């Protein structure tokens, strides 16, 4: 079986052949590796523990949006990982997977009153407030419940970064966070309310960030703001540094390592005596998963273009269509012969249902299996049933054992969610 994990150039293999899984559950299917999730969390934990002096007893809160499969979350929860959540559904998933409320951070620009109330009932560790208007609503919700939740103010440091313009979150025009110049006054306002307890600041400037500079700039902004708030007599004991560190989709070997990244954070926070938190999503999960797909047909056109038509479509893996994202694709069993240039497409009736153009691959035939690498983050979670295609199964592998951790619904199950309007008879 192909190795999943390319982080740090290290290879971690599970021992169940992908062919076996494809035969058992059908294709397309997402396959996740326990060993890789464990290794990535372990590397992060080790880096953070090395810098306890600067980072305190730091929380690593997996960004559930990256992969919300309950068994993936349970795998991480068992290792001690927390959860960064952005909806009631994600809080519920994290709790169901065994993450205690005390390890759950609730972020997001549009939390409803009902979701805020739910977060208070779940006694989450921290609510990251993203605007003045949200603070007012939270104060009202908390007052009605006689609560005083611990909150952080998410600061927008006007440093946007990321692998694509559509995934930056810290830019001046992005909807996320409180503009840096407004944040101190908002913090002071929160401190004056008996219904919330401001404990710190948060930031998250974007995703698939491949250099440390923008992250360092954002962390420095939080440091300066902490010192300014303290000078004004306000207590700041936590800094939530968000997620965003990129992974090597292209096999790059020059990306910052987890140790580089955490070491940089420790240097910036040194001497502040705060407890740090990190919210990695992609970093923990992307290279812990592949999307398995079978070739439906090879359409070699007379104009010279060869379309490899796969049974996976953009509804199963949206990233290429949404962000022109690159996913390495490998033939699960390589046939001998000359490498060809294939346009990898799915069966969806959309012109953007193209995974790659002129990708060089060994000879492939109908029925062959391919694996999309780096599909463990923002893969299954972004899938839809477009073109009435059932969501694909998800499988978790652990050494030589495997389990279906999300099943493919039957068509009847799909229809059962659409009761006929009673007037239609
Ligand atoms: C608030 C917050 N934290 C963490 C993450 C995780 O980001 P990534 O998967 O890039 O680590 C995101 C997503 O971008 C986010 O919005
Ligand atoms: N969904 C995006 C990342 C966005 C992260 C959430 N803010 C991706 O697949 O790259």
TrEMBL record:
Orn/DAP/Arg decarboxylase 2 C-terminal domain: residues covered: 30-376
SUPFAM superfamilies, sorted: Alanine racemase C-terminal domain-like, PLP-binding barrel
UniProt binding sites for pyridoxal 5'-phosphate: 244, 279-282, 378
Cofactors (names): pyridoxal 5'-phosphate
EC number(s) on file: 4.1.1.20
Residue ranges of domain Orn/DAP/Arg decarboxylase 2 N-terminal in the record: 45-286
Listed Pfam families: Orn_Arg_deC_N, Orn_DAP_Arg_deC
GO molecular function annotations of the record: diaminopimelate decarboxylase activity; pyridoxal phosphate binding
Modified residues (N6-(pyridoxal phosphate)lysine): 65
Chain positions recorded as substrate binding sites: 282, 319, 323, 350, 378
Catalyzed chemical reaction(s): meso-2,6-diaminopimelate + H(+) = L-lysine + CO2
CDD domains listed in its UniProt record: PLPDE_III_DapDC
InterPro entries associated with the record: Ala_racemase/Decarboxylase_C, DAP_deCOOHase_LysA, De-COase2_C, De-COase2_N, De-COase2_pyr-phos_BS, Orn/DAP/Arg_de-COase, PLP-binding_barrel
GO biological process entries: lysine biosynthetic process via diaminopimelate
Superkingdom as given in the UniProt entry: Bacteria
Catalytic residues (positions): 349 (proton donor)
Function: Specifically catalyzes the decarboxylation of meso-diaminopimelate (meso-DAP) to L-lysine.
HAMAP family in the cross-refs: LysA
Family: Belongs to the Orn/Lys/Arg decarboxylase class-II family. LysA subfamily.
Protein name: Diaminopimelate decarboxylase
Organism: Brevundimonas basaltis
């Amino acid at each position: 079986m192909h190795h999943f994990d390319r982080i740090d150039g290290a290879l971690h293999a599970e021992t169940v052949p992908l062919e076996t899984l494809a035969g058992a559950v059908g294709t397309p299917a997402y396959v996740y590796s326990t060993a890789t999730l464990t290794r990535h969390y372990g590397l992060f934990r080790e880096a953070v523990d090395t810098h306890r002096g600067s980072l305190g007893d730091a929380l690593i809160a997996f960004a559930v949006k990256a992969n919300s499969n309950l068994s993936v979350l349970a795998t991480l929860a068992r290792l001690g990982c927390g959860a960064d959540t952005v909806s009631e559904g994600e809080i519920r998933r994290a709790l169901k997977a065994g993450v205690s409320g005390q390890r759950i951070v609730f972020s997001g620009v549009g939390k409803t009153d009902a979701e805020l109330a739910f977060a208070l009932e779940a006694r989450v560790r921290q609510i990251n407030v993203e605007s003045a208007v949200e603070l007012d609503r939270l104060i009202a919700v908390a007052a009605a419940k006689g609560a005083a939740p611990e909150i952080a103010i998410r600061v927008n440091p006007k440093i946007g970064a990321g692998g694509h313009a559509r995934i930056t979150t810290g830019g001046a025009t992005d909807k996320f966070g409180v503009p840096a110049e407004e944040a101190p006054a908002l913090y002071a306002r929160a401190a004056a309310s008996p219904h919330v307890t401001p404990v710190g600041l948060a930031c998250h400037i974007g995703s698939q960030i491949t250099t440390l500079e923008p992250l360092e700039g954002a962390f420095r902004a939080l440091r300066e703001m902490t010192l300014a708030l303290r000078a004004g007599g306000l207590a700041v004991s936590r800094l939530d540094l968000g997620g965003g560190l990129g992974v090597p989709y292209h096999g790059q070997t020059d990306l910052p390592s987890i140790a580089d990244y955490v070491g940089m954070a420790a240097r910036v926070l040194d001497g502040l005596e705060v407890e740090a938190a990190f919210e990695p999503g992609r970093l923990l999960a992307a290279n812990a998963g592949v999307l398995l797909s079978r070739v439906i047909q090879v359409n070699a056109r007379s104009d010279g273009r060869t379309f490899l038509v796969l049974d996976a479509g953009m509804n199963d893996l949206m990233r290429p269509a949404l962000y022109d994202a690159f996913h390495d694709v490998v033939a699960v069993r390589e046939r001998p012969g000359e490498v060809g240039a294939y346009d990898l497409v799915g069966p969806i009736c959309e012109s953007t249902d193209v995974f790659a153009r002129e990708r060089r691959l060994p000879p492939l035939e109908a029925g062959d299996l391919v694996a999309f690498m780096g599909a463990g983050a923002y893969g299954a979670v972004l899938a839809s049933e477009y073109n009435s295609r059932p969501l694909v199964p998800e499988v978790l592998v652990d050494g030589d054992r495997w389990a279906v951790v999300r099943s493919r619904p039957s068509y009847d199950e799909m229809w059962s969610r659409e009761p006929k309007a009673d007037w239609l008879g």
